Amino acid sequence: MVVEVGYAQAWDLEACAPWRPMSVEEARKRDAAGLPYVAVYREPGGKAPLEVRLVSWRDHYVGLWVYDAEGRRTYSLDMRLLDDPSRLLRRYSVGWYYTGPETAEFDEACPRITVDLFPDGRGQRTEERQGQGGGSHITSPRLRDDERWMDRPAFGEWPLLSAQAYGLIEPSAFEAAEVAEAAEPGRGDVPANCWRPPRPVQPGPVNELFRPGVRVTDGYHPEMTVVEPCRVGTLRVPSGLLAISGPDIDHGDGPRITVPVPPGEYVLDEARVRFSYHCEWRETEV
Fold first, then answer.
1. Dmax of the chain from CA atoms?
2. Residues 243, 257: Cα–Cα separation, whole Å
3. Per residue in 56-65, pLDDT tens?
4. Sequence-separated (6 or more) residues with CB below 8 Å from residue 216
5. Which of 4, 138, 253, 284 lies at a 20 to 30 A Cα distance from 184?
6. Which residues, including other chains, have CB under 8 Å from residue 148's CB and lie 6 or more apart?
């Protein structure tokens, strides 16, 4: 079977199509530089892709999406490059099992299986069933080391995972797809409807939490108003090194970091906010 491989700067989630296609040479340069790009595998002339690979080495991330003939995503795999740069952890995966060709993509009624793995060997497999009985069945995945990890392949040497999904036994022959338009991968921002590499959450506007009158929200609670901060004490740092740990540090596995600061005493203020909400039991704002 011949499989056509095309490259692009990003993947348009709405159009299910590559955004800013590029040549193999340009994709190879981006791979070497660690910049984000996607590789799209499809049968020649096929409308829906067989699979889409999303690569961003600078973000320590590789994603893989497998599609069916209806253009629905059937499998999603997130892989992470951790301490060892030569191999990838199969960090998280989800598979959707559509009950018919008319079932919508990601339909809530669709049975699916998710697998959550951690580098220390722990993990969780969740099977969400539908129909009579329904519910979820959670187990601990029993996987070999080579099932949790995969060697980091060289550019252009990724295995075709969709070959298993489509029952392709014979080795596939790959050929480069034609670039339909001139690529300008270095110009302009990637549109909001395109895939972006996952990145750590950035710190919020901490200073705003100490300015009375500022309106803030955390996306879950209603809009809140910052009130006057409360002085709670002082912190002495004679060594010039501030140690910070997570709330579960007593268990020995919590996060911990040290931050250099000028030695001295630091005032501790507690940020406070005020908000109201409608209480359905009292039928009033509280």
1. 71
2. 6
3. 999 999 999 9
4. 205, 208, 209, 223, 224, 225, 226, 273
5. 4
6. 89, 90, 117, 121, 123
Nearest to 10 by CA among 199, 179, 189: 189
Written as one letter, the residue type at 53 is R
- Copy the structure tokens of residue 158: 């990724």
Q: Two tokens at 124?
A: 């969780």
175-179 CB contacts, 8 Å cutoff, 24+ apart: 175/2, 175/3, 175/4, 175/5, 175/44, 176/4, 176/5, 176/6, 176/24, 177/4, 177/5, 177/6, 177/21, 177/40, 177/42, 179/6, 179/21, 179/22, 179/23
Site of tokens 């001139």: 182
41/70 Cα distance (integer angstroms):
15
Which is it for the CA torsion 39, 43, 46, 49, positive or negative? negative
Residue with tokens 């191999």: 87
DSSP annotation of 19: E
pLDDT tens track for 21-54: 999 999 999 999 999 999 999 888 778 899 999 9
Alpha carbon of 108 to those of 65, 99, 113, 129: distances in Å? Answer: 19, 12, 13, 11
- What is the amino acid identity at position 59? D
pTM, two decimals, is 0.70
Cα–Cα distances (Å) from 251 to 119, 123, 254, 258, in that order, read 18, 19, 7, 19
